[in-house]
Amino acid sequence: MVLFNSDYTEGAHPKIMELMMSSNMEQTGGYGMDAYCDKARALIRQQCGREDIDVQFLVGGTQTNLTVIAATLRPHQGVISADTGHINVHETGAVEATGHKVIALPSADGKLTAQQVLDCYHEHWNDATHEHIVQPGMVYISNPTEIGSIYHRSELQALAAACRECGLPLFMDGARLGYGLAAEDNDLDLPTITDCCDVFYIGGTKVGALFGEAVVIRNPAIAKDFRYSIKQRGGMLAKGRLLGIQFAALFEDGLYFDISRHAVKLAMKIREACESKGYSFVVPSTTNQQFPILPNALIEKLGEKWGYSFWGKIDEQHSAVRFCTSWATDEAAVEQLCSDIRSL
Hints:
Radius of gyration: 20 Å
Strand content: 15-25%
Structural class: alpha/beta
Low-confidence stretches: none
Order of helices and strands: EHHEHEHHEHEHEHHEEHHHHEEHEEEH
Number of strands: 13
Number of helices: 15
Distance between the termini: 17 Å
């Protein structure tokens, strides 16, 4: 069986493994204070177009989300998120376990709008009893979102302007950021994201790395003492060079962007196969995640050969599933899956 369940079913890109092996017996400093991490930081700063940003490395997405959020908020504050946001639905209450509430706002497409942030902020402060209510303290978004949608430049800039008007730091979860940047209708780039967000991270775990996320911090108030927060939350890897090696390999020659485009190209083949049969989607997605609504009988038949994620029941005859491609997805396997979608 070939798995399309997620984008982290394989290990790491061979170039990463080669660099890990060739550097295995080198002696370096620990905790991310080594030449490989410094090189990765320099490469990321170059891609972001700024030298005044801090770059730190953590192991996984949930750990990164809770560390950034807990480091930014005061004890009485919460974080605004779409109701479908990863921190709200798929992290086992990790943010709440830090003592901070997720303030979930409704979203049909997985995204937040500038107006929603403004309304949430002013609703709080216009309430005469606001000191009895968790105070909005920051805004969390992900790009791509949990359901494969992406933010466009105008949307992100408007959101950033609303956050600045309200004094709310903007945090972008970039666990799948490479796949969002590779989308056919994307008009964002790393410099724009850096200018708009107070803090964001570049996902490695789902985009070619064995593990790891690179946190980019533009806001000096968040950068100050952030390494203390990493340590306190158990995120300071002693052999931190293992993270630096991976991001150095990913950003040395544009590998991160090349492998992201590979995954999206194959996802578009799956989308086209579903469209050719007249199947609709939960949301339109131009990223590596596709969410077609299929007849239950077809889903059952496909499940004999192909792994997928069940997303939800639509009606008695149809359900939504997720097919997820990755940097390592085999094109021949995608062609066969598409053939089965068209013929079964």
